[in-house]
């Protein structure tokens, strides 16, 4: 069943019924001010950090699931309703939500009144705009009331959810010229506050939630809206709220616009504040900004600028292939999701509260893979931020807070794959930009002043971290976990039912990871390439990669696939000798991507085993057979029911590794087949089974062992986005940045006759046309650039500002 459709021309997904299986969300903002918004206007906003600078309140794990948001109410002489359906859930005569690139537009019609609300964050601003258009389609004049509603939450969002004894007494607001200011934090810090403004003369306002809702009422029937009159309440503690009341009289056919601005303001630290103890905030700068964005001409210009920005960003790569789903994802939605995952890491969605997780060290390095070509300068800044959290040992905090850029001690370190991802992230950046100067940038360890060393030294230390932590078989120690956070193999218990997990340096923490071994081979080769570009000797890194590949062949190969690991007791994991968990997806992908087994045929054999044992119609499951009971020696992985998450779920993040691996062995049909199985656009018809948004990737799809096989969870914030983009654009379509230039090496399905693409690369534009005989499984590529044959498959870097015509002939 479908709940909407793609509008490719406008780059929008159109939802035509509000009761989607789950809230289908979008993201507002691309720089510093962000928000999530659902198809019924649920969600919240924050500045930079969803925990430390959250503007509005939202309730996770509630019923209904999507509760709290940017709510509007309309009221005529007889009744009231929500033009976004939530929260009143009035049966509207017509409804449409258009999720676009960093904006959402929700329109509806009820009792002859049409309402359309546009939500977006202007470029360069720390605010969001709501533009409500109300049209009277009745035959007679109508008098309407419009009420806005948000809940303020500008303090630590964790504290907001737990420390009621304090927060119920600290909330403060100020209302000046109809603008509602939330100034609770300002009283303590004297530098920042939130505001909510309306561009029309007010008939009233409310700032206390209990006054707006009334006793024992919820958002579906606020007392103020029901009565049609605001109370003018001023919050003193309890629950600060923001609501404006505007009265409209509309003639038949008349349309009126009402502008709202919700924003964050931070005064400079050295600004001259009012005397200590003053109850008035320094809002002069904010007032000018509010006036600017309540002007509809400014709003029109700002929205046009946002559209132009996305036109520019998406122009970095555009493709035209024989497959609509591929074109739609590559040209629009996958690229868009890459921007969101770059900004958010895994911190803020309907499944991540923005409180427990910040920016991931591993995650953010991987997100660069799909983002770096869009805004390289931001990718550069992010790399330096990530590297500055690295520890002097070469290890890494698993996560860090985006506002402070400090490592997260609550999560800590010891995930032994983390440091190697920094090499892969930096390599991707240098391949895209050619900017070797980043390697010489001084970067501290653990953000400690005086500890600076070059980024290049950080990379070398990342590699050394692995080499200094090898286990009994010569494979890398897994530490707390590797990429699979739930595979905790250093767990043991002296007392049944009481697990204990060692730290990376704890006595006896000897569990080893074949996955990290494959990752090390890949990272060592990448570092060797960077060393060669710097004029250094790459031999040591090349030898280390070769030696580790040999160790994998000796201790990581199980006869038909790569093993997964060795546990604390030295028992093999991911082997035919196991009763459950015999084969895992991760080492099959990562080892092949590292080049292990490509020459002796073991790579191809491993990929055959994946297709035979792990592939399902909805994607490739993480392992088989699923673990049927909890096993303390494996850790959290076996705590999940079979078919979910890490216990044999389809963890979509790893599926692109197999797409890349299939392309590396020349199997275009196999690579593209896996790509289509989890492509959200291709799964649109499965809306009531898939349940998540059909325009972005989800982290997980329930595996074959699950009762809900094919159901998706945890959409938006997943490494699936960047890796799928890399898999399809760089390996299947074969347009791949390398240190020496742009490689063109398509490995496309046999049925295709070719495709075309436009790719910006290091300031030049490459217009690429690929030709192939339909039905031929061709992998050899002959290149011609501007009429001149190119040997070796790599296009040399063209001068910035030039356009290169490229013909690729596959045979």
Automatic annotation (TrEMBL):
<feature type="domain" description="Glycosyl hydrolase 94 catalytic">
    <location>
        <begin position="310"/>
        <end position="734"/>
    </location>
</feature>
<feature type="domain" description="Glycosyl hydrolase 94 supersandwich">
    <location>
        <begin position="11"/>
        <end position="272"/>
    </location>
</feature>
<protein>
    <submittedName>
        <fullName>Glycosyl transferase</fullName>
    </submittedName>
</protein>
<dbReference type="InterPro" id="IPR037018">
    <property type="entry name" value="GH65_N"/>
</dbReference>
<dbReference type="GO" id="GO:0030246">
    <property type="term" value="F:carbohydrate binding"/>
</dbReference>
<dbReference type="InterPro" id="IPR010383">
    <property type="entry name" value="Glyco_hydrolase_94_b-supersand"/>
</dbReference>
<dbReference type="InterPro" id="IPR012341">
    <property type="entry name" value="6hp_glycosidase-like_sf"/>
</dbReference>
<dbReference type="InterPro" id="IPR008928">
    <property type="entry name" value="6-hairpin_glycosidase_sf"/>
</dbReference>
<dbReference type="Pfam" id="PF06165">
    <property type="entry name" value="GH94_b-supersand"/>
</dbReference>
<keyword id="KW-0808">Transferase</keyword>
<dbReference type="InterPro" id="IPR052047">
    <property type="entry name" value="GH94_Enzymes"/>
</dbReference>
<dbReference type="GO" id="GO:0016757">
    <property type="term" value="F:glycosyltransferase activity"/>
</dbReference>
<dbReference type="InterPro" id="IPR011013">
    <property type="entry name" value="Gal_mutarotase_sf_dom"/>
</dbReference>
<dbReference type="GO" id="GO:0005975">
    <property type="term" value="P:carbohydrate metabolic process"/>
</dbReference>
<dbReference type="Pfam" id="PF17167">
    <property type="entry name" value="Glyco_hydro_94"/>
</dbReference>
<dbReference type="InterPro" id="IPR033432">
    <property type="entry name" value="GH94_catalytic"/>
</dbReference>
<keyword id="KW-0328">Glycosyltransferase</keyword>
């Amino acid at each position: 069943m479908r709940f909407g459709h793609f509008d490719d021309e406008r780059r929008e997904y159109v939802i035509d019924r509000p009761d989607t299986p789950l809230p289908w969300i979008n993201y507002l903002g691309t720089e510093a001010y962000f928000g999530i918004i659902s198809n019924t206007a649920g969600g919240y906003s924050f500045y930079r950090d969803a925990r430390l600078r959250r503007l509005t309140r939202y309730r996770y794990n509630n019923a209904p699931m999507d509760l709290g948001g940017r709510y509007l109410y309309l009221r005529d002489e007889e009744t009231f309703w929500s033009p976004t359906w939530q929260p009143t859930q009035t049966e509207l005569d017509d409804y449409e939500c258009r999720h676009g690139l960093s904006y959402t537009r929700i329109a509806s019609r009820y009792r002859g009144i049409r309402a359309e609300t546009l939500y977006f964050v202007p470029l360069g601003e720390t605010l969001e705009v709501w533009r409500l258009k109300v049209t009277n389609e009745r035959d007679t004049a109508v008098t309407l009331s419009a009420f806005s509603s948000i809940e303020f939450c500008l303090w630590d969002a964790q504290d907001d959810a737990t420390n009621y004894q304090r927060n119920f007494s600290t909330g403060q607001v100020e209302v000046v010229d109809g603008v509602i200011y939330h100034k609770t934090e300002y009283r303590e810090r004297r530098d920042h506050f939130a505001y909510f403004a309306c561009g029309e003369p007010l008939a009233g306002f409310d700032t206390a939630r209990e006054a707006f809702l009334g006793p024992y009422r919820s958002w579906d029937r606020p007392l103020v809206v029901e009565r049609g009159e605001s109370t003018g309440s001023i919050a003193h503690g309890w629950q600060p709220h923001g609501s404006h009341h505007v009265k409209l009289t509309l003639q038949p056919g008349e349309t009126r616009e009402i502008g709202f601005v919700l924003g964050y303001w931070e005064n400079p630290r050295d600004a001259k504040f009012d005397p200590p103890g003053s109850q008035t905030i320094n809002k002069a700068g904010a007032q000018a900004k509010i006036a600017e964005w309540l002007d509809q001409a400014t709003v029109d210009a700002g929205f046009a600028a946002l559209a132009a920005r996305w036109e520019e960003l998406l122009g970095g790569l555009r493709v035209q292939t024989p497959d609509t789903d591929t074109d739609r994802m590559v040209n629009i939605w996958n690229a868009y999701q890459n921007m969101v995952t770059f900004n958010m890491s895994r911190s803020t969605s309907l499944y991540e509260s923005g409180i427990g997780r910040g920016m991931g060290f591993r995650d953010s390095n991987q997100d660069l893979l799909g983002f770096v070509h869009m805004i390289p300068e931001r990718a550069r800044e992010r790399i330096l931020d990530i590297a500055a959290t690295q520890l002097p040992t070469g290890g890494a905090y698993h996560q860090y807070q985006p506002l402070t850029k400090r490592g997260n001690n609550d999560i800590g370190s010891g995930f032994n794959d983390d440091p190697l991802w920094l090499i892969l992230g930096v390599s991707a950046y240098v391949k895209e930009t050619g900017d070797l100067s980043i390697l010489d940038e001084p970067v501290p360890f653990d953000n400690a002043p005086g500890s600076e060393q070059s980024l290049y030294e950080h990379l070398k230390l990342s590699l050394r971290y692995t080499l200094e932590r090898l286990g009994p078989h010569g494979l890398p120690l897994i530490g707390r976990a590797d990429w699979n956070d739930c595979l905790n193999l250093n767990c043991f218990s002296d007392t049944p039912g009481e697990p204990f997990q060692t730290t990376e340096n704890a006595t006896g923490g000897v569990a080893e990871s074949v996955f990290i071994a494959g990752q090390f081979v890949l990272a060592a080769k990448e570092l060797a390439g960077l060393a060669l570009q710097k004029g250094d000797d790459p031999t040591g890194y090349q030898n280390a990669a070769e030696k580790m590949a040999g160790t994998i062949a000796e201790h990581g190969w199980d006869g038909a696939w790569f093993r997964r690991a060795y546990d604390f007791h030295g028992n093999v994991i991911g082997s035919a000798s196991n009763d459950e968990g015999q084969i895992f997806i991760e080492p099959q992908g990562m080892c092949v991507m590292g080049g292990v087994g490509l020459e002796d045929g073991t790579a191809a054999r491993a990929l055959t085993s994946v297709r035979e044992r792990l592939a399902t119609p909805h994607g490739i499951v993480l392992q088989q057979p699923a673990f049927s009971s909890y096993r303390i020696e494996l850790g959290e992985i076996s705590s999940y029911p079979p078919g979910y998450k890490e216990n044999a779920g389809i963890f979509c993040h790893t599926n692109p590794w197999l797409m890349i691996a299939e392309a590396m062995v020349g199997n275009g049909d196999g690579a593209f087949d896996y790509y289509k199985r989890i492509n959200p656009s291709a799964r649109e018809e499965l809306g009531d089974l898939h349940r998540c948004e059909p325009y972005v990737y989800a982290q997980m799809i329930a595996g074959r062992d699950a009762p809900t096989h094919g159901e998706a969870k945890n959409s938006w914030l997943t490494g699936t986005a960047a890796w799928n983009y890399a898999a399809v654009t760089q390996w299947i379509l074969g347009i791949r940045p390398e240190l020496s230039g742009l490689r063109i090496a398509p490995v496309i399905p046999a049925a295709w006759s070719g495709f075309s693409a436009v790719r910006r690369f290091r300031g030049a534009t490459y217009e690429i046309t690929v030709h192939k005989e339909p039905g031929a499984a061709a992998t050899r590529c002959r290149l011609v650039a501007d009429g001149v044959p190119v040997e070796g498959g790599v296009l040399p870097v063209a001068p910035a500002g030039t356009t290169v015509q490229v013909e690729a002939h596959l045979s």
